[in-house]
Automatic annotation (TrEMBL):
The lineage of its organism: Eukaryota, Fungi, Dikarya, Ascomycota, Pezizomycotina. Residues 94-103 have a biased composition (Basic and acidic residues). V-ATPase is a heteromultimeric enzyme made up of two complexes: the ATP-hydrolytic V1 complex and the proton translocation V0 complex. This is V-type proton ATPase subunit G. It comes from Gibberella nygamai (Bean root rot disease fungus). One of its GO terms (molecular function) is proton-transporting ATPase activity, rotational mechanism.
């Protein structure tokens, strides 16, 4: 079928003229479009390759960051454990130095308490006979007093 066909076919140059004009103007355009589409597909392929490379770089960066975060966490745990051990050692040393003074003070307090207990027991032994005598006389020597009516 011819473009711009009329009801009666005409076979002269004038009838082909619109077809020649169309092909003259659009044929080079079609060729350049094909050429550009080939160049565009190469450009698109290049962009896709660049995108893949970029995604690989981003993936490596994420993996590195994850690895570094794990390492930092492990380093922090180790530093905390070292610091804790150091402070516990300092505390034990401090406690040992100051507990000796407390032990001495405790021993002196115990000796003083023993002295006071012995002096109280000796005082009780000296007055024990008199205390027993007073208690027995209060119980057995009763002076009955008749009640008075008021």
């Amino acid at each position: 079928m011819q473009p711009f066909a009329t009801s009666t076919p005409i076979n002269n140059d004038a009838s082909r003229r619109p077809l020649n004009l169309i092909t003259r103007y659009f044929s080079p355009l079609n060729r350049s479009l094909y050429r550009h589409s080939a160049q565009n597909s190469a450009g698109i392929q290049q962009l896709l390759n660049a995108e893949q490379d970029a995604s690989k770089i981003v993936q490596k960066a994420r993996e590195y960051r994850t690895k570094r975060v794990r390492e930092a966490r492990d380093e922090a745990k180790q530093e905390i454990a070292d610091y804790k051990a150091k402070k516990e050692e300092e505390y034990k040393k401090f406690e040992a130095e100051h507990s000796k003074g407390n032990e001495q003070a405790e021993a002196e307090a115990n000796q003083e308490a023993e002295k006071q207990i012995k002096s109280i027991q000796e005082a009780g032994k000296k007055g024990q006979a008199q205390v027993i005598k007073n208690l027995l006389s209060a119980v057995f020597d009763v002076n009955p007093v008749p009640p008075t009516k008021s």
